[in-house]
Amino acid sequence: xxxxxxxxxxxxxxxxxxxxxxxxxxxxxxxxxxxxxxxxxxxxxxxxxxxxxxxxxxxxxxxxxxxxxxxxxxxxxxxxxxxxxxxxxxxxxxxxxxxxxxxxxxxxxxxxxxxxxxxxxxxxxxxxxxxxxxxxxxxxxxxxxxxxxxxxxxxxxxxxxxxxxxxxxxxxxxxxxxxxxxxxxxxxxxxxxxxxxxxxxxxxxxxxxxxxxxxxxxxxxxxxxxxxxxxxxxxxxxxxxxxxxxxxxxxxxxxxxxxxxxxxxxxxxxxxxxxxxxxxxxxx
Length: 284
Ligand SMILES: NC(=[NH2+])NCCC[C@H](N)C(=O)O
Fold this sequence. Notes:
By secondary structure, the protein is α/β, with parallel strands linked by helices. It has seven helices and 15 strands. The structure holds arginine.
């Protein structure tokens, strides 16, 4: 019998930025999940969002709240509005005109909070929708939303090596629908979302990754948030939750059924505010 110890996982306190779905609706379609002919229950969306926020709070995390803006129904997906690493902020530039003004709301919030290093990007990037942070690398998705030029801009701004990954399935239009960072350099991903070359890159960098299936991914299981130990993910992704448990993580299923109607779930609603890393000054 093969025995291997399941590692003990440790949670570290995080700071998240979220935006309530006060004006949530599906009136346009910019990804295959969005069907404007189907009704959404905004009150239920709000209750699901509050439940997610309360779970973060009960795990000891901090949640900052961005004021929602009327006319921006996708603003609940706060992960798309910026990328914050080492307390420095790279703003977003949305691919679709319907979401463009969200980028301004995020930039204003960071400036009002006193963040000093706030950069308005030149190229299209949808924040943590396409950018993920591991201890060694920044992972960057392209193919549907973020521009490959934004990957170079990401690397130059943060001074961390960027690994470009090509997304090939329109259902997984953002990196955070196909891959989640668990802890350090540990990730979980769905290989079928990536081009052959990107799959090989992922195998090389993350030989011990937890692998997900299309079934996990269509339940939005990769749209997960991990604090090093707890993994918050949509409750429908049960097979993935079991696999994460076998790797020592503690999965926590949450109901995000209304938000999934717009093509987003746990991670999309959660932008991580990373205050400090190893102090290697970019402008040194
Ligand atoms: N981080 C995410 N994947 N966010 C989901 C964004 C959903 C939004 N309706 C869009 O298509 O842009």
